[in-house]
C-alpha cells in the first residue's frame, strides 16, 4: 500500500521528471532489499536517452528593433526668409540707459555682420497729470506728476530669418530693467495670384 508520502512523491516526480521516472522512484522507495533497489537503479540507467524525460530549458531571446533611417535626399530643404528692414524701437525713462543699450545693440549687429541703415532719437514725450494731495477735500491743493519717455530707433537691413532670430534672442536676454523694445520686420512677398490677373471688367473697358 502506498501512503500519503508516496502519493506526494509521485505527484512531485510527475511534475519534475514525467510518469516513468515517478513510477520508478516509488518502486525503489517501497522495496526493502538493497538488491531490488540496485536492480531498479540499473534499469533506470539502462534506459536510452530517447525514452528519458527531457527537462525543460529556458532560452533567452533578444529582439532588435531597427530604427528607420531618414536619407538626406528625402528631407525637404526650406529657404530662409529675407527681411528687407528690421526696425528696433527702444524706449525707457532714463536716457543714459537707453544710449548704453543702443551701443550694445550696434556692437552685437556689427559682430553678426548685419548692415546698419541709420539710428535716430525721436522727440521725448512728457506725460503730465495733476492729482489732489488729499484723497477727499482740499480741492485747491494739487500736485503734478510728470513721466518722461525717451526713444532710440535702430534700422537694420537685409537680415535673414535665422540671423534675426539669433540676434533678437541675444539682445532681448540682455535688455535692462525698465526698458521696452518694439521690433518691426519688413518682408518682401510676391503679389497674390488673385491680384496678378486683371479683372475682366477693366480688360473689356
UniProtKB/TrEMBL annotation:
Residues 87-184 form the Small ribosomal subunit protein uS10 domain. Its main location: mitochondrion. This is Small ribosomal subunit protein uS10m. Keywords: Mitochondrion, Ribonucleoprotein, Ribosomal protein. Belongs to the universal ribosomal protein uS10 family. It comes from Tropilaelaps mercedesae. Pfam families: Ribosomal_S10 (PF00338). It comes from the Eukaryota. GO terms for cellular component: mitochondrial small ribosomal subunit. InterPro entries: Ribosomal_uS10_dom, Ribosomal_uS10_dom_sf, Ribosomal_uS10m. It is found in: Mitochondrion. The lineage of its organism: Eukaryota, Metazoa, Ecdysozoa, Arthropoda, Chelicerata.
Amino acid at each position: 500500500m502506498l501512503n500519503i508520502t508516496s502519493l506526494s512523491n509521485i505527484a512531485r516526480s510527475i511534475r519534475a521528471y514525467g510518469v516513468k521516472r515517478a513510477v520508478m522512484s516509488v518502486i525503489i522507495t517501497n522495496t526493502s532489499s538493497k538488491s531490488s533497489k540496485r536492480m531498479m537503479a540499473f534499469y533506470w540507467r539502462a534506459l536510452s536517452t530517447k525514452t528519458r524525460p527531457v527537462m525543460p530549458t529556458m532560452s533567452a531571446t533578444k529582439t532588435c528593433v531597427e530604427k528607420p533611417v531618414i536619407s538626406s535626399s528625402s528631407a525637404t530643404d526650406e529657404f530662409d526668409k529675407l527681411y528687407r528692414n528690421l526696425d528696433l524701437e527702444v524706449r525707457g525713462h532714463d536716457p543714459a540707459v537707453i544710449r548704453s543699450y543702443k551701443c550694445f545693440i550696434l556692437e552685437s549687429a556689427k559682430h553678426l555682420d548685419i548692415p546698419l541703415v541709420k539710428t535716430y532719437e525721436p522727440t521725448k514725450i512728457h506725460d503730465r497729470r495733476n492729482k489732489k494731495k488729499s484723497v477727499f477735500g482740499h480741492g485747491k491743493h494739487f500736485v503734478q506728476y510728470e513721466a518722461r519717455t525717451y526713444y532710440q530707433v535702430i534700422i537694420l537691413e537685409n537680415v535673414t530669418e535665422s540671423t534675426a532670430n539669433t540676434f533678437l534672442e541675444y539682445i532681448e536676454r540682455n535688455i535692462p530693467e525698465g526698458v521696452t523694445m518694439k521690433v518691426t520686420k519688413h518682408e518682401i512677398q510676391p503679389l497674390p495670384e488673385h491680384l496678378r490677373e486683371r479683372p475682366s471688367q477693366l480688360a473689356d473697358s
